[in-house]
Write the structure tokens for this entry.
Amino acid sequence: MGTGERPLTFFALILPFLAAAAAPLLTRLLKHNAAWVLALAPLWMFSHFAGMLGPVSEGAAIAGGFDWIPSLGVRFSWYIDGLSLTFALLITGIGTLIVLYSGGYLKGHPHQGRFFSFILMFMGAMQGLVVADSFLMLFVFWELTSITSFLLIGFDHAREASRRAALQALVVTGLGGLSLLAGLLVIGAVSGQDDLSGLLASGDLMRNSPLYLAALILLLGGAFTKSAQFPFHFWLPNAMEAPTPVSAYLHSATMVKAGVYLVMRMNPVMGDTVAWETILPLFGGVTLLVGTLLALRQTDLKLMLAYTTVASLGLLVMLTGFGSEKAVEAAVLYLIAHSMFKGALFMVAGLIDHESGTRDIRSLGGLRGAMPVTFAAAILAALSMGGLPLFFGFLAKEEIYAAIAVGGGWATLVTVVAIVGNALMFAIAFAVGLRPFIGAAAKTPKHAHEGPVLLWLGPVVLALSGLIAAMFSTIAHQLLSSPMASAVAGQDLQIDISTIPHIGMPLLHSALTIALGIGAYLALDRLRASMASVLEAIGWGPDRGFDQAIRGLLRLSFGVTKIVQNGRLDIYMTVTFIAVALTLLVPMVLFGELPSVPVFPDLWFYEWTVVAIAVIGLGAVVYAQDRLTAIVSLGIQGFAVALLFMLMGAPDLSFTQFMVETLSVVILALVMTRLRLSVSDHRPTGQKILDVSVAGACGLAFGMLLLKVTQLPFDETLSTFFKNYSLVIAHGRNVVNVIIVDFRGLDTLGEIAVVMITGLAILALIRIRTKDQTVPAKRKGRR
Amino acid sequence: METVLSVLVGLFFAVGIYLMLSKHVIRILLGIAIFGNAVNLLIFTVGRIVREVPPIIPHGFDVPPGPVANPLPQALILTAIVISFSFFAFLLVLAYRAYQEIGTDDTDGMRVAEPEGESLPPLGY
Amino acid sequence: MRTLIFRTAAPYLTSLMLLFSVFVLLRGHNEPGGGFIGGLIAASAFAIYGIAFGVPEVRRSMYFHPMAISGFGLFLAALSGLLSYVFHVPFLTGIWTSPSLFGITVDLSTVMFFDIGVYLVVVGSITSIALALEEREDG
């Protein structure tokens, strides 16, 4: 890696977002062929990351970054070791194929440009997630994948099922994201680190902390929701509402593996404890079984694949938590294999759907003649998924059985779960990859024929890469698997498994799996029927629970709104002022801050007179029986205030107050003579007593507050500053005016803007008319 | 002096709030006008009172020679008076227009934004 | 309201008040007064004129729409603040100059133009409000 590596890596991180911005325009110009141009972005990223294979496979980690928000200590930084690099290569490599595939799949779709945009944005988010070093970046990109996934699932937003699936995915993974954030905060607090590279060295600190279990559960809350572990698995099959490129990319090859990535990333730090080695295999194992059993129930090719994806994710979590180096190696191999064969099979399912018009396995058959290339890709991918020799999936499976065959009750249980799960996945693999192509040709909605190159290129390349990687397993292990496994295990590991079968327990388990799998494949229809009846008997699942929870939430918020926002202004006001009175009075009484009893004030006669005028004015406003009295008495109290300002050394205020009171009286008179507004009070006596007590309590509170404040010493710093510098700095003798136009000029600028806006608002209010005109004719035709 | 003003400010607040608790728009408006004066007087009094000496520097001096009134609260209140007036005018016109459109000055009858007996929103997605 | 005395006195009253408002505005920096007060006095003057002769007459004699005057005032105030950037000082810093014209020294400052801006905003907005309400009165 040369010195130009850092800016180039940064460019690779932002390139997908740039491409996303350009996608709509490109698509408008080039139609679906824009895919060829847009695919260059992930292709270049792939080659950039592939250039890192050399140093990373020798054990180096490539780190870089720059200060993002220096004042908060936030860095935009990346840390690329074997784990990150393998993920990055999968994301960009499969991403390239997916962009091409989308070009063919959504050809002619009116929003194809938007789709490209979303999928490239997702690619950028996922990419950032797997290379992120700082916790904050990890979290931001994690949430970004949730949001882009929401956009992609809801792409076909005119259908309610899409909207529901999108919302469900967002709610489940979003809640998980919050849990992850909390977990990262706990980890940050315990370890004192705010980036992953620093955290990797603090494993013992974490494991010995009393907060370990809390951090673990919060972290797994994020990982399990994202990676669709039971009981959070239900959103993933629903996400199949998205167009097939999305299912292939997000919901099998990449995004759903983010949870697995997190678990693997944290393995050196959080792993090797009893909690880790209990929770992970438990949830993973249950997910594996539930996923495969539910997959049997399905007839839709995509749904079958979706449930096996759930199962595979369970298998990965189970292996990561098993707690041996071999298991880690197995998880790594299976993850790589799964991304390739499942991506390919999804694309095949989409291709069949696209060309034949249906994805229902019961109405498909005999496509081998019509779609030979698709058939080839499908069977290659199915062989890898089934774990048959010569394919990468076989390596993974052998390694799995080798890893868990260590004896003991726990390991035996895990082995049985793995064999049953793998056997059922074998059956599904061939149900998807073989069954639509053999047998008698079935009548499909569209006359099936081979798809265009854009569509079959992706599955063929992915399926072949599963074969090639197994052929040259030594190189694949050296470059990808071993560095990744080392990163996950936190120590140097060398994977050496190859396609030549070894005689021993793993091979026996493999044979057993394949035998069981063939049996399940042949009995698929009967298994499906019995699964269907079992599920019917249960009747309730987390999917329905989600609906119930959302409806309950709606009802609850509606009920709360009805109470809080009851639409009655007088109640709002009463509650507000009771709160005001309490916040002022309670602390004063509780903390003994009541004002001391003042001495009787020594006022001059005319001062008393002005105060008396104010009081009379106030009283007259309250007791006014007609409009004129009310207006005049309002004026009286206002002029009394103006006089008070005058007496206390504030001539500016006094003049302003005089002018304002005059204008207020004028406009009040103008409006009120036009309205038959009743002025006198019609409140019932009970209401009056309540209002008087609330108003009285507020008045008392403000009065006491003011009394207390004036009894405390006064800080004159600011006032003295203004007095001393008004003439010297600002060349003005009227200190008040200098403050307004000079010292605090910005405030004044804002304030005159407000005055102007209210003027505009008033003009607008006067001129608008409601649609149904009931205004008298004489007002018409005015501006 | 501060004591008398404290009591007076308390009275201004009480009257303003009492009027604002009414259901008649016009009384609420009167209350708001008084409330504005109450707040201005509050700010003024918090800055302490000096009788009759405005904060103006006489000719021949660079700083005020003796104690003068506190200029800071005055500057704050000056703009506050103008702004509260423009808001008062806005509220007045709003009440006037509402009266024209809805035909009532009773806040109980003004339920366009929050109608009574609203039904549950749709439960779909 | 439109008595003979009022209608006769109104033009003089209005012009006197307008003159006074400018006086109050300009002396504001050293004596009590300033843009806010001046603006309110001028707005009252227009309101009185409107009550005496009707709103169309005021609109005709003002020539510009009141809100346009208000907008110009805000523009002037902001502009006098922006001038600071030419002299590399923070936004709204007062800049003073004392040019001599025919032997008479005149103090000019951005602060003065800022205050004139305040005056215009207040005149424009408040007059606009008052006229809008008076207009309904005529109808």
Observations:
- Chain B has one domain: 2-51+68-107.
